[in-house]
Write a structure and sequence with these properties.
alpha+beta, 5-stranded antiparallel sheet, 5 strands
Amino acid sequence: MPWNRVLTKAVLACLLCPRPGVADDSGFQERAQRLATLRADLEQIESDLQAERETQRNELRALAAQEEELGLLIRKERIRLQTLEKQRDRKVEERASRDNQSARLVGVITDAVGILETVVAKSLPFHIEDRLKDLEDIRRDLESGQSSPETAASRLWQFVEDELKLCSESGLDQQVVEVDGKRQLVDTARLGMVVMYYRAADGTLGYTVPTADGFRFEPILSEAGRSAVVLLFESLKKQIRTGRFDLPLELTVVKEGRR
């Protein structure tokens, strides 16, 4: 039996049982009134308790639902964390593999730049300083980390393609050349990477002569040779690139000291 009902009966028993020697109707009514008040208070307390119990049950049910939802979220997060850890491990392995490949590629590119520098230094003296600087820039950016090995390889391949393009093209240009120990700006007519003719401001004409260390510039003294070179300059200026040209040409390596 609920404790509030037991308490109600006890209070009623005390109030209804008259004290010995007292028979006062007014006292009985007063007790009855107090009993009614106490009973109303008890009923209100019981109602409040019931409401509090219901509120607590609802809160417990809500907490249980939240606990279940949180448990589900935790399980999902654990699965997601495991997936991310696997992806991280795979990325670390891929990065290590790329780093190893990049390290090997750095050595290959550096060796290739060195080989090309040697080739360019001994090639036809067409803007050699600029071409060597391009190679030096590739090496410097690679060693400093400004360029990745892949970028450096792409730049080096573009340099090689430009060199091959020079071999198949002919045209007019200007550059500084050294003739008899003097550096001067001259007009040049280049035929691929085989030979290059120059024309100075004072009318001096000359051409490249291969040597053991590369090329040097030699003046053209014969009238036939000078006339042929002048005709070549005029033809290239007019975009005439076909036909026969009898030009002075030295293809064999000339020993140093020979004039």
